[in-house]
Amino acid sequence: MNFTYLSAKYLKRREIKAMKYFKLDLLTLLISLFIFSSCQKSDSIALDISPGDTINSSLIDTVSVNTYTVRDDSVYTTSLSQHPFGYFTDPVLGTTESNLAFTLGLPSEGFSFGKEAQLDSAVLVLKYGDEFYGDSLSSAYAINVHQLSEKYINSTGYYSNRKWNYNTAPAGGKVVNRFAWNDSIRVRQIIDGAADTLLKIPPHIRIPMNRNFIESNFINADTSNFKTSAAFRNFFKGLYLTIDKSRSTGAGGIIFFDLATASSSKLEVYYRNKNSSGNPDTNVVSFSITNSGAAANIVHKYEGYPVESKLNKLSDEVYVQALGGLKTKINIPHLEKLKALGNIAINKAELEVSVVGGSDSPFKPAKRLVMYRTDIAGQRQPLPQSGLDMALHPSVIGAVYNSTKKCYVFSIGSYVQSILSGRLKPFDLYIAPIDYTAGTSDYNITTSATTAMRSVLGGKNNSQYKMRINIYYTKPD
After folding, report:
1. Please, which of 267, 281, 329, 418 could form a disulfide with 68 given CB 3.0 to 4.6 Å?
2. Which of 249, 246, 239 is CA-nearest to residue 141?
C-alpha cells in the first residue's frame, strides 16, 4: 500500500511549518508542542523561525475511532478513602443506589456500662468525605439504620455487588433536606467530673438511634458480649445504612463518608450512672467505625432510560459512570496502517473527547477520566508513558475536564508510537471516571468507588461532538 492510497482512504494529511527536527532541543520541542494543545482542531501552526531552518511536519486528524458503551466491573469497596451512600435518578443513565454495611469496634475489651446504667440517647456519627454528587437543592433523603443479620467479617474484602441480609425494622433514622457536607457543626462534649461544653467539629451527619434497640443491644446486654472484640462481633453483627425511597423526594444524590479518619465516625451512646460519690453523672461511650470494617452495596438500573438502547452497540453517544457503572470502549481499526508512512516519529498524539451539549445539567460531567488498554488476555494495563507525554499532560493516564471547551484531551503519543514500532498490539482502549484527587499511579486504572460522577460523550460520527484523534509526526529525510 503506498502513501497516496493510504491518505485517500484513511487519512487527511496536512503540512505544518516547524523547525528542523535535528535542531530541536527538548525545551524548544516542548514549547512548540504546547502551542498545539487545544480542544479544537489545529489546521496550522506558525513559529517565529528563519525561512532557512524549516522542514515539513504533518498532522493526521481523520483516523477512524469506534465507540461503545459497556458495563464496568464490580468495584472493591472495603478500606476506601471515602465510602459512597445514597440514591439518585439520572435522566439519561437511570438510577444508582449505594447502601453501606459496617461493623462496630468496642471502646475497650471488657467494657461495662455498669449495673445501674440508664440510657439517655444514642446517635450514629458519620464524617463527611469530599464529594456530593446529585441534586443539592430540591431533594430530601429518608435515611434508615438497620441491624445486619449476618456477620460482617473484618478480614474479608467486599465488592460492590455483595448483597447483605439485614433486619428490615429500622434501628434508627433521619430525614435530611440536604447533606451539609461543607458545614462544621457544634456538639455538646461531656467531660467526666466537669461541666459539659460545646465543641466545633468537622462536617458530619448525626443520625438518632432507636431507644429500645440501644437498650436491648447495649445497655442491658449481657456483659460477656463485651469481653472481647470477637465476642462482641459474634453478638452484634453490624449496621446497614439505606435510603428509604418511598419517603425521599427529588432527583437525589450520592454522598461520601470518610470512615478512614480515626475516631471521627462512631456510634455514640449517652447514658447516666452514679459516679464515685454516688451522684448521678452523664457519660458517653463510643463504638468505633473504620473504613477497614465497611463496604458498599451498589446497584445501577438502566432499564427504561436512554442508556439501555446504547449498551454494547457502536454509537454516536457514549457514557462513562463511576461506582462500577459504565465505561466507554474505544478501538482504532486503522491505526497500524500508519506503518505505510515508513519510519516516522510521533511528536504528539491526542484523543479529543467532547461532552454532549445539554448533558451537564442537573448532573455535572466527571472532573477527570482515566484511560487504559487491555492486553491479549483482556487484562487492564496502563498506557505507555514518556517524558513528553508527562510534560504535555502531567496526569498522563487521565484527562481533566476543561469546563470552558467542554472536553477532555488524552495524550496518547507514546501509545501510538508503540503500536507503530510493533511493541504493542492495538487491543481495545477504555475510558472511565476516576476520583479527581487521585494520583497518577498504575493502580488508578481500576474501577473507581471514591467518586460518583459521570459524563455523556460524543462518539463515532457524532455530527457535533465527534471523538477524534490528532497525530503530529515527522518523517526523517
Report:
1. 329
2. 249
